[in-house]
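Teaching soon. Invent one.


***
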Amino acid sequence: MNKKEKILIFYSGSLGDQLIMVPVFGAIRNAHPDSEITLLNIHDSNNAFTPAKIIENTDLIDHLKIWSHKKVKILRKFRFLLFFCRPFLTRYKVIYYCGRDGALFAKRSQRDSAFLKAYSPGAIIRGTVKIHDFEDRKKMMPRISEIVLSRLNHDGLEPQLSEAKNELSLTAPEKAAAAKHFAEIKIPPGTIPLAVGPGGKKSVCRYPVEKYIEILQRLIKENNIFPVFFGGREDDSDITKMSAALGDGHSARADRLQCDLRTTIALLNHFPLYLGNDTGTLHMAAAAQVTCIIISSAHNNPGLWTPHGNMHIMLRSNPDCSGCREKNCPIATPPPCLLQISVDTVLEAVRTKLNELRESV
């Protein structure tokens, strides 16, 4: 009996990174339908919230390995010791290097290639050549998944990859749990449920709470909206503040994001619209096929983190400091690029999508 060909995907990323890369992982699976595929995810996590688990137990991969950045750093430094461990290491035929593109990509890929050659001698390593220029920080770029896919195909080797659908194959139990939780939220009859994601790990991505409060108050009064907040533990204080400002019975909190990522995506599928910052919750909503209105900072090149789907509205300004690539704005908090997005601009975008929903009924 022939042994299955072994494939390794090397990737480092958090929640939004994992979700936007799903079509690339799907493309690799489609190119190797009968192979044994392992995703090696480099991520610092010590709990069930590990982002890569969102594609575990799906058809996309067969195995998931999660290594911390510290572990990889040690293995890189002492990679010569891997020579003595070769009898115990898995031999991969192809390694797909899906490291994130950026100004430092060439340096990172060279460093990682040396490690991967020692980790799996003889493997074909694809995707390590830089083919996009990130020097112009205001330049419109393809979506990051499209960039990675073009890089993987750049060597001309077979099989060439074609972007797959953005599908996570949610299970019946996950959908049932989400439906139960949605019913427990008790959306008031006659209102339109709006998923709201006001959080974000980077302060540069967080739209002011006061502006969210004004937007939601007007949507509740004028458009019969019922906001349901999605966020992690780090967003508790902001969500509590917004809920208090809206008043009892005028909003709710979905707690699934703190414990079960895939069920949260199934839960988001019950909402017609999502309003929120450019963060992991956004890409969960997009994965649930929800129409998104995104309030985006300008710290990255435009286009890179656009969610999958063509039904979304991305709100973004273009100040002189665009493309700073900072996690915390060195000018002010909140950053000027977010302050330039007015409450009226956000309201207009939400109402545009509300009108489209009414017309489609």
